Amino acid sequence: MRTTSSLLASAIVALAVGLTLTPSAAFAQGMTFDEEDVEPIDEEGMTFDVEDVQNDPAPSGETRPAVGVIAVPLAGLSAGDRQTLQDALRDAVNTIEGIDVYGDADLLPALEDRDPSYCSAESLCLANVGRSAQVDRIVQARVSRAGGSYTLNIDYFDVRDRLFLNYHTISDLSSFSAVLDAVQGGVNEVFGVRELRPEDPGYVERDVNVRRIMAFATAGLSAVSLGTGIFFGLKVDEGMAETEQFSRNDDGTYVELTQRQAQALQRDIESDALTANVFYALSGGLAVTSVLLFVLDSDPAEEIALGDRDQPWYRALRLTPSVSPEAVGMGAKLRF
Predict the structure, then answer these.
(1) Where does the UniProt annotation place the signal sequence (predicted)?
(2) Are residues 153 and 248 in the same domain?
(3) Cα 97 to chain center, whole Å?
(4) Does 257 share its domain with 163?
């Protein structure tokens, strides 16, 4: 009995080893498969067959951000105009490569549940809207009207980081048609798209920050004014030293100069002193203006991301340079 059990165990071990070493293809010999054996499988209305699996490209590993597009429903913008702006904005964003564009089907209800004017400019609120719509980023257009002109604001917002990536404002638009015409250019700006002008193939468009240019210009003019003031101040010192060389009588009149010559010399000294003081004051004013321009100069996207309630006190003052063929000026606006 013991011998029989040993032989049976040896046979089982030998059979297992043989099955392990035998190629798997050997078990398929004599077996055939036809089209019925690999017919398409239908599950919940979606059909997959052999060709679909073979033709499906492998994922490249690069994730395209899902970008939701919305024209913000603000006061003064009718439903029809908002939809027209929505269509123009989506058409413009569709020209941008490397992103997946989605409409406002989910964004609009989520935004209307909140205060659109507040939520569209407040990063935390807008991030919640984006998460509810399941998008990675948001491109929004906001239109406001003051007097007879329109202002178009286009924002590019990152939902995950709760950050305005870029921001562009187009002001003094004469009509709503001009607003629609400006959408594509505004979208190109926030996405950093630059196009050559067709009439000039060599034209290269450059972003110009007028406020920063004015800051450097006023700093340079302040230095020039200071140097001019110092020059006239030195002339005053020379004039005073020259008058001290002439002797005077007990009554204060000059011995070697006539009364008219003494008065002319005194007027020259006073004129140089006044000129020096004017240039000193001008230099100080330009220096203060330059400092304000540098301090108040900021990225509009950063300003919007902070929100109106989080603005530092010095951001409440906005300086806007004004340049025309007739004059150059500076305008100031204080926001409460």
Answers:
(1) 1-28
(2) no
(3) 18
(4) no
Indicate whether 137 and 242 sit together in one domain: no
Instruction: Tell me the pLDDT tens digit for each residue of 198-223.
Output: 555 554 444 456 677 888 889 899 99
Q: What is the pLDDT of residues 227-283, one digit of tens each?
A: 999 999 998 888 888 777 776 776 666 666 777 887 788 888 899 999 999 999 999
Q: Which helix (H) or strand (E) holds 240?
A: helix 210-245
The total number of structural domains that make up the chain: 2
Helix (H) or strand (E) holding 253: none
Q: Residue 307 and residue 118: Cα distance in Å, rounded?
A: 9
> Count of CB atoms within 10 A of residue 295's CB?
14
Structural domain including 163 reads 66-190
> Which H or E run contains 170?
strand 163-173
Query: Position 284: which residue type?
Result: G
- Cβ–Cβ under 8 Å, residues 196 and 203: yes
- Mean pLDDT for 98-126 is 92
Among the candidates 190, 224, 249, a domain finishes at: 190
> Tokens at residue 42, please?
């239908």
Give the residue from 70, 75, 68 showing the smallest Cα distance to 117: 75
CA distance 153 to 143: 6
Q: Report phi then psi at 152, rounded to 5.
A: -110, 125
Q: Would you state the structure tokens that stand for residue 33, as one six-digit string? A: 């498969």
Helix (H) or strand (E) holding 307: none
